Amino acid sequence: MAARRSYGSYNDGCASAHALDLIGERWAFIVVRELLLGPKRFLDLQRDIPGIGPAVLTHRLQDLEETGIVMRTSLPAPARVMVYGLSEWGRGLEAVNTALSIWAAQSPRLPFEADMGPDTLVLAMRAHARRLPEGGPESSVALKLSDSRDSEREPVEYLATMTTTGSTVTKTTVVGAVDAVVNSTTRAWKAVIIGGASLESEDDIAITGHQHAVQMLVDATKL
């Protein structure tokens, strides 16, 4: 049965207005954002979106499923759990998230002190990622982020690759040979990527390998 929406359609022929019909309800786009790097269980989403209750999360997921943005699937054995992921069409919303991030970074009221989850912080890096200057050495870094909001949660792993054609940061559990490994809390890493702090000033950042590679990552993805 379709979820009942708490608002009416704009009934406007503009595609932007239709987009707001689809993702404009409170929490809807935040749910989408949390799925941009891969599927998650209901409990994962509830943990990663502080402040959302289970009933509201259920309704938002139902709305997003109804519109074809989110899909529910079962992981094969031995996991055998239900996860929520974005459809191919839904994954196109990362471009919207990127545009919003670039636009809102200029806001004088951007809450720099507010915490961010690991995926959210990496999405900000992806939104502002830049290619290396021509002739520069390519580099790769394993990034392991511990959520400052939840000290009992296992670090989330990412692989960052910087090249002259572009820089990328992807979520992964398999990392091969890299130039450096970074272990950091989200609060410390955010201070560097968004707050402009230096790597040396943050006690909660530990680097193994070439620090120059990590600085290249910062330079390629900071706001």
Q: Can you put this structure into words, describing what you see?
A:
The chain has 223 residues and is of the alpha+beta class. It has 2 domains: 83 residues, Orthogonal Bundle (Arc Repressor Mutant, subunit A), CATH 1.10.10; 106 residues, Nonspecific Lipid-transfer Protein, Chain A (2-Layer Sandwich). Helix content is 37%, strand content 18%. The strands form 2 sheets. Strands 5-4-3-6-7 form a 5-stranded mixed β-sheet. The chain has a two-stranded antiparallel ribbon with strand order 1-2. Strand 1 and strand 2 form a beta hairpin. The longest helix is centred in the first third of the chain and has 13 residues.
In short:
The chain is an alpha+beta fold and 223 residues long.
